[in-house]
Write a structure and sequence with these properties.
Structural class: mainly alpha
Number of helices: 5
Number of strands: 0
Length: 118
C-alpha cells in the first residue's frame, strides 16, 4: 500500500516536471507561436537578428527575462542610440558584447529600432 502511494506520487512528480519542461521549452505559450507586439514594427532584418541573438534574455515581447534591466520595452526613454549601440557592442554586466559576432549594420539596425522604444 505504501509502495503504491509512493509510486503514484513519483509518477505525478514526473508528470509535473515534464509539463514544466514543455512550457519552458516553448516559452510558456499555449497554441503555437505568439506574434510579438513589439517586434511588429521592426524591419525584417532587425527582427531576425533580435530573434536569433536577443530573444533568450530580452524575451519575445522585449519584456526581459533576466531581471528588470533586460526589459527593452521603453529602452529608448532611458538610453540614446549611441548608448544602446555601445552596450550591444561592448556588453555590460551580464550582457555579453556582440562586436565580434554582429556586423556594424546589424548593431546600428538594432540600436535605431530600440531607440524608438519609448
Amino acid at each position: 500500500m505504501i509502495a503504491s502511494i509512493h509510486s503514484i506520487r513519483l509518477v505525478k512528480g514526473f508528470a509535473i516536471l515534464a509539463l514544466m519542461a514543455a512550457l519552458v521549452a516553448c516559452g510558456g505559450k499555449a497554441g503555437g507561436k505568439k506574434e510579438s507586439v513589439h517586434l511588429k514594427d521592426a524591419p525584417s532584418k532587425v527582427a531576425a537578428v533580435y530573434q536569433s541573438r536577443c530573444l533568450n534574455c530580452h524575451g519575445n515581447d522585449l519584456q526581459g527575462r533576466v531581471g528588470a534591466n533586460t526589459n527593452l520595452q521603453q529602452v529608448g526613454s532611458r538610453m540614446s542610440f549611441e548608448e544602446i549601440a555601445a552596450q550591444i557592442e561592448q556588453g555590460k554586466g551580464l550582457m555579453p558584447g556582440f562586436a565580434d559576432s554582429l556586423s556594424q549594420n546589424e548593431i546600428d539596425g538594432l540600436s535605431e529600432w530600440l531607440a524608438t522604444k519609448q
